[in-house]
Amino acid sequence: MKRKVSLELQQACSVASLPDTGEIRRWIEAAIDATNYKDERACDVVVRIVDEGESRDLNYRYRHRDRATNVLAFPAEEGAIPGLPPAPQRALGDLAICGPVVEREALEQGKPVAGHWGHLLVHGTLHLLGYDHETEAEAAEMERLEARIMADQGFDDPYA
Q1: What pTM did the predictor assign?
Q2: Sign of the CA dihedral running 115, 118, 124, 126
């Protein structure tokens, strides 16, 4: 099922390789559609493109790691208010993607930068949907799903 994604793109830094809004939405939709996500409502996602300083600050504040990272996911907490109908749209959460790290990693790893952007959008979206990689089993499941989504979009397995 193709779900509508309401996307807010925030650009806190400028990077030449940033995909356009439609491409970002397409990657997020591909990730959602590849899962067993059953909520039929449209999904709200905020994608914030950050520089290395903001990425490092967020990573330290929320993960206690003092370095910039490629993507951070902040799932939305959704709780129904008793007596009210569910909201017409489902807030999935926010992704903070460090543009300079994405570009540097793609170059260092010999990957097409467009594919690396796509992979990190998929990876972050899966985190918003509750996927994780804290255990070997979780990591294996998440990596298989990411590889399948990337292949469906015409890109190589990001873990190969």
Answers
A1: 0.92
A2: negative
More confident residue, 135 or 38: 135
Q: Which two tokens stand for residue 104?
A: 């540097």
Determine contact, residues 113/128, Cβ cutoff 8 Å.
no
Are the CB atoms for 17 and 55 separated by under 8 Å?
Answer: no
45-76 confidence digits (pLDDT tens): 999 999 999 999 999 999 999 999 999 999 99
What's the order of all strands across the beta sheet hosting 89-98?
5-11, 42-50, 89-98, 71-75
CATH T-level assignment (fold) for domain 5-152: Collagenase (Catalytic Domain) (3.40.390)
CA dist 50 → 54, 79, 80, 129 (Å): 6, 29, 31, 22
**36 CB-side CA count, 13 A:** 4
The residues spanned by each domain of the chain are 5-152
Phi and psi angles of residue 12, each rounded to the nearest 5 degrees, phi first: -90, -10
- Report whether pLDDT(3) > 70: no
Distance CA(55)–CA(35), nearest Å, equals 27
Mean pLDDT, the chain, whole residue set: 92
